[in-house]
Amino acid sequence: MHKNKWKAWLYLLPAIVFLGFFLVYPLIDVFVYSFEEGYNSASETFFGVGLYNYRYVLREPFFLQAVVNTFILVIITVPVSTGLALLISAGLNHITPLKKLFQTIYFLPYVTNTLAVGLVFMVLFKKTAYSDGMINLLIRLFGGESVDFIDGPYWAKMMVTCLYTIWIVMPFKVLILTSALASVNPDYYKAARVDATPPWRVFTRITLPMISPMIFYLVITGFIGAFKAYSDEVALFGVNLNAANMNTIVGYVYDMLYGDSGGYPSYASAAALILFAIVLTITCINLLISRRRVR
Amino acid sequence: MKIVLSHLTKIFPNRNKKVGGDVVAVSDFNFTIPDGKLIGLLGPSGCGKSTALNLICGLETPTAGKIFFGDDDVTDLPPENRGVGFVFQNYALYPHLTVLQNILFPLENLRGERKLSRETMLAKAKEAAHLVQIDELLERRPGEMSGGQQQRVAIARALVKTPRVLLLDEPLSNLDARLRLQTREEIRRIQRETQITTVFVTHDQEEAMSISDEIVVMESGVVQQIGPPQTVYDDPVNLFVAKFLGTPPVSVFSGEIRAEMLYIGDAPVLEAKGLRDQAVWAGIRPEGFVPSPEGPLCCRLTGVEVMGRDRSVVASHPSCQSPEIRAIIPAETPVDTASDTVRFCLKPAKTHLFSRESGERLRAAV
Questions:
Q1: What SS3 state is found at B268?
Q2: Which residue of chain B is at minimal alpha-carbon distance from A189?
Q3: How confident is the model over A161-219, as pLDDT tens digits?
Q4: Which of A19, A48, A21 is nearest to A266 (CA)?
Q5: Shortest Cα distance from A195 to chain B (angstroms)?
Q6: Which of A78, A105, A242 is nearest to A169 (CA)?
Q7: Domain topology for B3-243
Q8: I need a labelling partner for B289 at 20 to 30 A (CA). Which of A7, B70, B102, B217 fits?
Q9: Nearest chain A Cα to B96, which residue?
Q10: What are phi and psi of A60, to 5 degrees?
């Protein structure tokens, strides 16, 4: 028994060392950094311990802008992408010819490189000296005023960002929901048919409850993923996100560490912990709601 | 409601390219189900009995033939307009709804002038629940109930909209042995109380025999025999029906008719008046063997099993198609268990002769 215990630990050792070194230790370090005032990474010195870093970060306009941007992104993209994915997968489930082909097409964005997608979005939206971008050409065709989506007004930039994010996250959701829909026992639908159930009622009273655990899983991971948004914004607006007013919380953390204004691990740590608190709160709320709604 | 099936045929297109030809699931099915009867569709797996049920329900459309409910031609009606109640093999109860919500579900679907008030719906649901004796379980969810209870809920859900026809697909196959006995009596009772024409599908001959008013034996999509269970058992039209009904099964011997006498091996065992000389199959029911020291059929004795009321003699014979013969005899009939052999006389009414070529029944003149 005693010997076996050591053996067990031995087997666990690689994982423990790896996780400890790259996950647990940095986590603790972030926590420590965030409370050390005036930490200097070169000399590894600090003046004192306290909440100064949090106070600074919470007052910084760039951080507040990043929080606002992140929240707008989350609130728009999570429901829209989940809803659209539900519609698309319900549609996919109903067609029989070319079903596999459409499934593949809808999954393609998932395996496409973020920056490549960014390039395509540039062609669609960016105004250059030579072209206004495809979308602006369309807008003008219908007699509208052309808008600079990449360098223009805030709402236009936010709209492009949301579109971009939705387009990127949707394939995974479509994939999950299509398989969830396909796994519902067809006997339920037959029973509903024999009982003359109207299609809308079949969807809301049978299909939705049956796949609700998967929808819920997608909403939770969707929230967490959207709160961690960063690379999509870089792909659209370049690395200087503060200048574009399109920074996100993770972007702010990165800038504080390595950006032009960087070299402040304490501020970055404080911002990261604030993000952690936000995500934790939202996830807890999600869990509470789901316990009542999901079977 | 009388159900008339007229030349009902269902052919499924073949998807397996290696094997040619389409699949004929049901072939030229003709049957008039009398009003208020309980009918068992019986056959081995893949014989087309479930397809026949789906055709009556409307979940499948026939390739040819007509279906009438009473005088209405329902062949082209979708299931929702046929007024059928269907109980699925796995019950298909909605797991996220309570028993009451499940039973209410079909009523809530009614639209237009058939729409009911909430009170009527509740009253009807409770009435259906009472009929199947699940009054206590209305707030439970399907996952919190036993298989037998789920079965009752499924029946209640099928009955609540007072269907013209009740259809049950393998209603007992998901239950354990004890519940099966109990539930089949329940189905009989519910059917008697409601007087709804009921068709159920089963592969278990005992189940079909015990509760049906009439049974339909099917094989490879073709109806073999239709009739009251006892008639089909006593008077099978072919070898398949004889072999399919009865436990222990009928013992099949290869025999020969010579000069209006049935020979098994070299022993003349039974008179066969009016039959020409030919090779035959002789199917003998377990109760058709009568041990007798002078009996013509001599078998090797393997053992005698005492089963209380009667005894089961296990024997073997080189002409028998199965390695062992089971004969059921009254407990008081003496059998010399010390002997290696046992001799039987055969009861003519329990011995059926079948053509060696077609498997059809050969009837000797009485």
A1: strand
A2: B92
A3: 999 999 889 999 999 999 999 899 999 999 999 988 898 999 999 999 999 999 999 99
A4: A48
A5: 5
A6: A78
A7: Rossmann fold (3.40.50)
A8: B217
A9: A295
A10: -75, 125
Phi, psi of B359 (to 5 degrees): 80, 0
Host H or E run for residue A244: helix A241-244
Q: Which residues contact A9 (CB under 8 A, 6 or more apart)?
A: none
- Tell me which residue of B125, B92, B95, B96 sits closest to B108, measured CA to CA: B125
Pull the structure tokens for residue B276: 């020409």
Interchain contact, B92 vs A195, CB within 8 Å: no
Rounded to whole angstroms, the Cα distance separating A182 from B218 reads 33
Q: CB contacts < 8 Å between A and B, how many?
A: 56
Indicate whether B174 pLDDT > 70: yes
User: At B198, is the secondary structure helix, strand, or coil?
Assistant: strand
Interface membership of A96 toward B (CB under 8 Å): no
Least Cα distance to B291 among B326, B335, B337, B350 occurs for B335
Q: Tokens at residue A220, please?
A: 């939770």
User: Quick one: pLDDT at residue A232?
Assistant: 85
Cβ distance A156 to A163 under 8 Å?
no
Report how far residue B358's alpha carbon sits from residue B366's, in angstroms, rounded to the nearest whole number.
Answer: 23
Task: Write phi, then psi, for A151 (nearest 5 degrees).
Answer: -120, 10
Q: Domains plus CATH for chain A?
A: 53-98+158-293 (1.10.3720.10)
Q: Could you identify the residue written with the tokens 């070319």?
A: A98
Residue A125: predicted pLDDT: 85
Token readout for A112 is: 């496409």
pLDDT digit string (tens) for A99-156? 888 888 888 888 888 778 888 888 888 877 777 788 888 888 887 777 888 888 889 8
Q: Which residue of A has its CA nearest to B81?
A: A196
Q: Which two tokens stand for residue B116?
A: 């009911």
For residue A210, which residues of chain B lie inside 8 Å, CB to CB? 95-96
Task: Report how far residue A119's alpha carbon sits from residue B358's, in angstroms, rounded to the nearest whole number.
Answer: 76
| Cα distance between residue B93 and residue B141, in whole Å | 9
Mode of pairing for the β-strands spanning B3-12 and B165-169:
unpaired
| Residue that wins the pLDDT comparison between B274 and B101 | B101
Output the 3-class SS for B48-63: CHHHHHHHHHCCCCCC
The three state secondary structure string of A108-164 is HHHHCCHHHHHHHHHHHHCCCCCCCCHHHHHHHHCCCCCCCCCCCCHHHHHHHHHHH
So what's the pLDDT on residue A262? 67
Question: Cβ of B94 and A201 within 8 Å?
Answer: no
Q: For chain B, which residues make up each domain, given as ranges?
A: 3-243, 248-362
Instruction: Test A205 with B90 for CB contact under 8 angstroms.
Output: no
Closest-CA distance of chain A to residue B169, Å: 12
